[in-house]
Amino acid sequence: MKNIIILNGSPRKNQNTAKMCESFAQGVKDAGGEAEIINLYDIDFKGCRSCFACKLKGGKSFGRCAYPDGLTPILDKISAIDGIVVASPIYCSDVTGVTRCFIERLTFPFSEYKEGYPSIAPKRLKTAMIYTMNVSETLSNQMYPDMFDKTEFMITTVFEKPVRIFAYDTYQFNDYDKYVVEVFDKNEKLKHKEEQFPKDLQKAYEAGKYMIKSIEG
Ligand SMILES: Cc1cc2nc3c(=O)[nH]c(=O)nc-3n(C[C@H](O)[C@H](O)[C@H](O)COP(=O)(O)O)c2cc1C
After folding, report:
1. 3-state secondary structure of 35
2. Closest Cα to atom 22 of ligand 1
3. What rounded mean pLDDT belongs to the chain?
4. What is the pLDDT of residues 98-144, one digit of tens each?
5. Which atom of ligand 1 lies at the shortest distance from residue 94's CA?
6. Ligand 1 pocket test: which of 14, 134, 147, 197 has the largest number of ligand atoms within 8 Å of its C-beta?
7. What pLDDT is attached to residue 217?
8. Domains, the chain
9. What pLDDT, in 10s, does the model give residues 190-217?
10. Residue 83: pLDDT over 90
11. The whole model's pTM is what?
12. Which site from 31, 32, 94, 116 is most exposed, i.e. has the minimal number of CB atoms within 10 Å?
């Protein structure tokens, strides 16, 4: 059985990003794999502490993150899984800070400070990124022309280039009337949620199936 871990980098456990994660997980399961969703906001951890134990010559933690905290059991699973998915809403033109901290801890120990920065990850894992955001696809392309490449750079270096799945123009509030929102039309948002979001969920589902099929070759 192929195992996939899906990290939800949104604080909300039942909204856009979480639903995309669930759809991806369903695709994995329907293709015969196992999927575990982990909510990063439930875990007590921070970003890299720059201790360099992962780069110490002859060190017992060479090539792995030595900092003991809530992330340790998850990082310890990496050698036993077949694929990893990182999902995040866009906050202030980037992935969430928690997602960013996770990517640092996940990838930096696997990138050796040698010519070409070779990967010493235990496996070249299949990877996928799920992004959800308020802006439209057109605006996203204008506003974030290279943000996704930068976010994925270390993941691509140590594992494989991620498959990308997007949900644009997401529905942010359960009741738009309760909040001061002048820049978005609530009816347009609702229409998008009802017509487009199910298609985005389907894309996540297909990507989950595809990940299992591509692992099995
Ligand atoms: C603090 C904060 C900052 C945000 N910044 C952006 C942004 O820069 N660009 C954007 O398109 N959406 C932005 N959003 C909207 C979220 O990315 C969007 O609603 C996302 O789908 C929320 O995911 P969730 O439903 O899983 O929480 C922001 C939301 C929050 C709470």
Report:
1. strand
2. 89
3. 97
4. 999 999 999 999 999 999 999 999 999 999 999 999 999 999 999 99
5. 8
6. 134
7. 87
8. 3-216 (3.40.50.360)
9. 999 999 999 999 999 999 999 999 999 8
10. yes
11. 0.98
12. 116
Q: How confident is the model over 8-17, as a mean pLDDT?
A: 98
Q: Which atom of ligand 1 is nearest to the CA of 172?
A: 19
Which residue in the block uniquely carries the two structure tokens 């015969």? 32
- Can you tell me which atom of ligand 1 is nearest the CA of 8? 26
Cβ contacts of 126 within 8 Å, gap of 6 or more: 82, 83, 84, 159, 160, 211, 214, 215
Which residue has tokens 């990877």? 127
The conformational region for residue 117 under phi > 0 = left, psi -120 to 50 = alpha, else beta, is left
CA 181 to CA 128: how far, in whole Å? 32
Structural tokens at position 15 = 């909204």
At residue 153, what is the residue type?
Answer: F
